[in-house]
UniProtKB/TrEMBL annotation:
Primary residence: periplasm
Superkingdom field: Bacteria
Protein name stated in the entry: ABC transporter substrate-binding protein
Keywords: Signal
Gene3D superfamilies tied to this protein: Periplasmic binding protein-like II
PROSITE patterns: PROKAR_LIPOPROTEIN (PS51257)
Pfam name, any one: NMT1
Localisation: Periplasm
The keyword Transferase is annotated on this UniProt entry: no
Entry keyword rRNA processing: no
UniProt-listed SUPFAM superfamilies: Periplasmic binding protein-like II (SSF53850)
Family: Belongs to the bacterial solute-binding protein SsuA/TauA family.
An example Gene Ontology CC term for this record: periplasmic space
């Protein structure tokens, strides 16, 4: 009788112990899903892909579902409609929403890139561009009101070129088709992101002759943002998301272009590794990747100047109206 009782207690203890172990191993909490929409797939967004490939989002308990939605207008539409939770897109889109008097403004909370990411490619010529030769040319630009186009126009004006009068500016080609339009023979010059610029150089289709990132200075060019209502309801998730971004930014700063290329190659399956390395190198050399997620006042004011010159700014929007640096500041101070 005593033996049977003893066996019973040992059995019950074993069941409880196994249950405790199983509970600990399975994780006390399930991951929170976050739907993210990026405006394009580009080496320009290397920290985002590093956060995914290195598991930084996972470490924060987030299950990030990434999709590419070409064009800032389309990405913002997806965010406003609730199709995505977070957008990686130019800060100008949040200003456009604010200018329309939205009851639920879009808030910038995590900067990824701090310069323009496009390069001027010339069909003929190499070395540094002679801006005088750009006058009278056919220039294949970007979408009106988008950051690439506004930064491009800002640069052209800096070199005494009126984009509306001094050249034939083509802006009626959809963002996703600009590269193929250039490839088919449209334009003497084109504004391209990496890795497309490096690919065309390797194929002998043209030469990069200028960097709009270097020309237009520091801007909150591409930022993670979400609707104010989402941030208020999910502040813990937004903080974890920003922590993961800071981890990725630290990692990018500490590693070589070749190491970064290895980390992000899964997101560029058909790309040549050498092309990815050279693209990352270009962006690192010009300080494109932000070292932390904070949008500072100098960058914001430069953005307003660029938009104002492009005629896209109805009023000067103070950063405090649609920028929340609290998550970025906390991530910068706590993530090592």
């Amino acid at each position: 009788m005593r033996k049977n009782t003893r066996r019973l207690w040992i059995g019950l203890f074993s069941l409880v112990l196994c249950g405790m172990i199983f509970s600990g191993c399975s994780g006390s909490k399930s991951e929170v899903k976050v739907k993210v929409g990026e405006v394009t797939r580009s080496v320009f967004y290397a920290p985002e892909y590093v956060a995914l490939s290195k598991g930084f989002f996972k470490e924060e308990g987030l299950d990030v579902e990434l999709q590419t939605i070409p064009g800032g207008d389309k990405t913002m539409t997806a965010l406003l409609s609730g199709a995505i939770d977070v957008a990686l897109v130019g800060s100008e889109t949040s200003i456009y929403v604010y200018q329309q008097g939205s009851d639920d403004p879009v808030i910038n909370f995590g900067q990824v890139t701090q310069t323009d990411g496009t390069f001027l490619m010339a069909r003929n010529g190499e070395g540094k561009v002679d801006w005088n030769q750009v006058k009278g040319s056919t220039f294949l630009g970007q979408r009106k009101g988008g950051m690439p186009q506004m930064a491009g126009e800002f640069t052209l004006r800096k070199h005494d070129i009126d984009p509306q009068k001094d050249l034939k500016l083509i802006q009626n080609i959809d963002f996703a088709n600009i590269a193929s339009a250039y490839l088919s023979g449209t334009g003497d010059y084109v504004q391209l992101f990496e890795p497309q610029a490096s690919i065309f150089e390797k194929e002998g289709k043209g030469h990069v002759v200028a960097s709009f990132g270097e020309e237009s200075g520091h801007l909150p060019y591409t930022v993670f943002m979400s609707k104010q209502s989402y941030i208020k309801k999910n502040s813990d998730t937004v903080q974890k998301f920003t922590n993961a971004l800071q981890k990725a930014q630290n990692w990018v700063q500490q590693h070589s272009p070749a190491e970064i290329a290895d980390a992000i190659l899964p997101y560029f399956k058909d790309a040549d590794k050498d092309i990815i390395v050279s693209s990352v190198q270009r962006y690192k050399d010009q300080g494109t990747y932000a070292t932390d997620p904070i949008v500072d006042d100098a960058e914001w004011n430069n953005l307003l100047d660029v938009m104002s010159q492009a005629g896209e700014l109805k009023e000067k929007v103070q950063a405090k109206a649609i920028v929340d640096n609290s998550f970025a500041e906390k991530a910068k101070s706590s993530v090592k």
